[in-house]
Amino acid sequence: MQSLEHDERPWGSYDVLLDTPYTKVKEITVDPGQRLSYQYHTKREENWTVVKGDLTVELDSVEITLPPGSSIHIPLLGKHRAINNTGEPVSFIEVQTGTYFGEDDIIRLEDDYDRAEDDPYFHLADGNYIGGLTMPKENTNKLNKNE
Questions:
Q1: Are 48 and 59 in contact (CB under 8 A)?
Q2: Hey, CA dihedral for 118, 120, 121, 127, is it positive or negative?
Q3: How far is CA 68 from CA 13, 29, 65, 72, 91, in A?
Q4: Cα(130)–Cα(134) distance, rounded to whole angstroms?
Q5: CATH number belonging to domain 5-107
Q6: Is the C-alpha dihedral spanning 33, 55, 93, 98 positive or negative?
Q7: pLDDT digits (tens, 9 = 90+) for 34-72
Q8: In the chain, where does DSSP find H-type helix?
Q9: Per-residue confidence band for 139, with pLDDT thresholds at 50, 70 and 90
Q10: Residue 144, CA distances (Å) to 130, 131, 137, 141 in order
């Protein structure tokens, strides 16, 4: 199958195989020893099926290793990342469903490649946004007349 889009990332690459108003399908390849950012999405959920190698998945702070043919559901707002702890490339098929499939629906919580600091939706450890809709409480207290 010919790819609709190919993108190289610091952790590996992905190919978009299908892109419609109701779903997006990607083949994602994670290079040996690499991992994606720890992230979540507000407008989509994902189903991952491992097709090559053993993929370690972190989902809501729990890690599980999946062999080829295994699948996992990433729910809406589920904090997740794909990790390759092996010496060979690992590939999985990602099926996205929801209302929006743009790359700007990636909310990064941690990132090994210093992309989080450039991301306006990067979250602080306390869960507040940097540059987003909320900010640390100490900055908002000035707005509260009772404090």
A1: no
A2: positive
A3: 18, 13, 10, 12, 9
A4: 8
A5: 2.60.120.10
A6: negative
A7: 999 999 999 999 999 999 999 999 999 999 999 999 999
A8: 137-140
A9: very low
A10: 20, 20, 10, 5
Cα-trace Rg, the chain:
17
Cβ–Cβ under 8 Å, residues 54 and 66 = yes
Gap between the Cα atoms of 103 and 24, Å rounded: 11
pLDDT of residue 31 exceeding 90? yes
Is pLDDT at 8 greater than 60 in this prediction? Answer: yes
Does pLDDT of 120 surpass 80?
no
Amino acid at 52: K
What is the average pLDDT value for the chain, to the nearest integer?
A: 85
CA–centroid distance for 59 within its chain: 10
Tokens of 39: 């992230």
Tell me the mean pLDDT in the region 110-127: 62
Q: Where are the domains of the chain?
A: 5-107
